[in-house]
Amino acid sequence: MFNSVSRCNVNIIRVIELVDSMALPGVHRDRGELRIHESLDELSTDLADYIADLSEASVKERGVFAIALSGGSLIGLMGKLCEAPYIKTVDWAKWYIFWADERVVAKNHADSNYKLAKDGLLSKVFTLTSYFLPCCPSSASCNLSTFPICVPIVPSHVHSINDSVSAEEAADEYGFVIRQLVKTRMVSVSDISDCPKFDLILLGMGSDGHVASLFPNHSVLEEKEEWVTFITDSPKPPPERITFTLPVINSASNVAVVVTGESKAEAVHLAIDDVGPDSPSLPSRMVQPTKGKLVWFLDKPAASKLKSLQFSE
Ligand SMILES: O=C(O)[C@H](O)[C@@H](O)[C@H](O)[C@H](O)COP(=O)(O)O
Questions:
Q1: Peptide bond connecting 237 to the previous residue in cis, omega within 30 degrees of 0
Q2: Closest-lying ligand 1 atom to the alpha carbon of residue 70
Q3: Ligand 1: which residue has its CA nearest to atom 4?
Q4: From atom 2 of ligand 1, which residue's Cα is the shortest distance away?
Q5: Which atom of ligand 1 is nearest to the CA of 102?
Q6: Which of 92, 129, 187, 239 is 20 to 30 Å from 155 by CA-CA measure?
Q7: Would you say the ipTM is above 0.95?
Q8: CATH assignment of 2-19+31-303?
Q9: CA distance 193 to 106
Q10: Glucosamine/galactosamine-6-phosphate isomerase domain: which residues (predicted)?
């Protein structure tokens, strides 16, 4: 079940198809693929590779790539996408960008997940125009074989929430926007429900096991109808947030949970290992894509309490 692989100079320990043999009746508890890294640098490289590969496959298949981001340390760990080779090779113009969760604050507020992604990622790709100007088709010096991509992220493809309305209204509006994009298939649709099927949803996880803004023991975990909902009592500040619901997360083609640091080790264990019938209803454990693929990006401290793992280095 366990094997070591080396990929793009990154040494990772990968556990393929870790299936919980103690699954509850009717519940398929496939905990996905584990990629456990020696260092944050290796994890970042593997994460950039993974995102770039999914982007390429999705653009080839559907002409677009619909990706949802979260907040927290994830954005910093995605930073290598703004470096060579990805900055040049990723087809940024085909990206449609969403947020799996957002804090209900102004877009220029330090707590805004949009601001975090804009400053840490998007602004670096927005400036591609000037970066690539000398090679664009209109330029005599254009060399498309060396620089196939000349177009940056399209601002109208960046779907952040309306920051001038209440949490409830922002969630409603965001759900409506996604519905329009599902109609035109910029976002695909699940073939077993009417849910959107994002090409990739990227999640972080808190030490309490929350993902997106789905917190343990919160009624938001029961939401089955809405695609996007809101909370006003987040245990992690700020209190007002909007979030994708579990049905949307579990309808995605790909879900990646990126978790680092020893403070998350217990939650990683509870989210992934077979902990028997007393398994707490951890939001991260409820991430179980129905038909999509789940991948965990962990560093060794975060993976240190995993019982199901035998390191085979
Ligand atoms: O907006 C948020 O608060 C996030 O989307 C949240 O779900 C985050 O991903 C986790 O809290 C992990 O954050 P860290 O990686 O910073 O611990």
A1: no
A2: 5
A3: 71
A4: 71
A5: 1
A6: 239
A7: yes
A8: 3.40.50.1360
A9: 33
A10: 40-296
